Amino acid sequence: MAWLVYACLLVVLLASPASASRSLAVAGGDPTGGFTAVSLSERNFVVQHPYDLPSNARYKFDGGVRQLWVLASDKPHDRQSNTSPRTEIRMTGYDYSSGVWQFEGYGYVPSGTTGVSVMQVFGAGESATTLMLHVYDGALRYYDRQVVEEHIYDRWFRLNVVHDVDASTLAVFVDGVERLRVPGRGGGSHYFKFGVYAQRHDSSCMESRWKDIKILKKI
């Protein structure tokens, strides 16, 4: 009978949500496996910030950490733009229209920041973006829809976004675990952005921090 009790306990443990998450992480492996990182320099990191302010009024790069913040009352990033306030980094030099590309970075969102996009894949067929990751009340969401990851406030999390252009799919990994898989949205050219870009019901101040940013391509 002892072996039967042990077997039942094993089944229960394997069926638990925590065990399922661990299994998914192990089964998926490192999301960067099979990818090669491209060469990046500071020229690839272009800061978009309120047009009436210098970049250092809303952006700081110190000790390997990129700190970006914006106020709900700030101007847009361009005098001719009607978009909401933002302080974002637009990754340049590696715009892509085919193949499989990946963004990797470690993000941090302080508590109180809400109603904001912290990462996006720009370019689509009938909209501006193929993917946006928003933060609402401490949860990372696909746009303002399904939750990608709960409880991201005040902690560093590893974010990997894989875009297979030819298959028209995107996958989002948080801390090595796949949390989202969605179809693409078309478009002829794409690039990655991260930082803070005000959305609906935004807080008066929005901030995110990033480090160890990589762009990778599947060879």
UniProtKB/TrEMBL annotation:
Coiled coil: none annotated. It comes from the Eukaryota. Pfam families: Alginate_lyase2 (PF08787). Residues 43-215 form the Alginate lyase domain. InterPro entries: Alginate_lyase_2 (IPR014895), ConA-like_dom_sf (IPR013320). Gene3D superfamilies: 2.60.120.200. Keywords: Signal. Residues 1-20 form the signal peptide. This is Alginate lyase 2 domain-containing protein.
